[in-house]
Design brief:
The protein is built from 1 helix and 10 strands; from the N terminus they run αββββββββββ. The chain is mostly beta strands. It is globular, with a radius of gyration of 15 Å. It binds copper (II) ion. Copper (II) ion (CU) binds near residues 91 and 118.
Length: about 140
């Protein structure tokens, strides 16, 4: 299959799945973080967990961020915009993730559609007391 045919198939799959209420109800994340990143400007630390699998498998994934100051204090009231992106192929996902603030510095991102094997980034813009960005990445087998 050509790359464009693959992408078209993936987009069709995404459309078929868009009525699925992904992330409705409580999602449980593992106790241990998958990874921890600092934001580009150093304003925040972000612990990353994934569900239903950690590390994530191909398909619809939920991601939890636990955002703190570099000193470890949880930060609430942030506005997050999250875009899944495959840098090697220059494309994103057809589904726009939804972010919900859970308190205690926790933010749950549902509808993260990692539909192809390879390296995916979660390009994340953070706005609030400080503006910064992060791009934790996942290797999808
Ligand atoms: Cu791709």
């Amino acid at each position: 299959m050509t790359r464009s045919a693959l992408l078209a198939a993936a987009l069709l799959l995404g459309a078929a799945c868009s009525s699925d209420p992904a992330g409705s109800g409580a999602t449980s994340f593992p106790a241990a973080a998958l990874t921890r990143v600092s934001t580009l400007g150093g304003a925040f630390d972000v612990e990353v967990r994934t569900a239903p699998d950690q590390p994530p498998s191909r398909g619809l994934v939920s991601v939890e961020y636990r955002i703190t100051t570099p000193g470890g204090a949880p930060v609430d009231g942030l506005d997050l915009a999250v875009v899944p992106y495959m840098p090697a192929m220059g494309h994103g996902a057809s589904t726009k993730p939804t972010v919900s603030a859970e308190g205690g510095g926790r933010y749950v991102i549902t509808g993260v559609e990692l539909f192809m094997p390879g390296t995916w980034e979660l390009r994340t813009q953070i706005k609030g007391t400080l503006e910064d960005s992060a791009a934790p990445s996942f290797e999808i087998p």
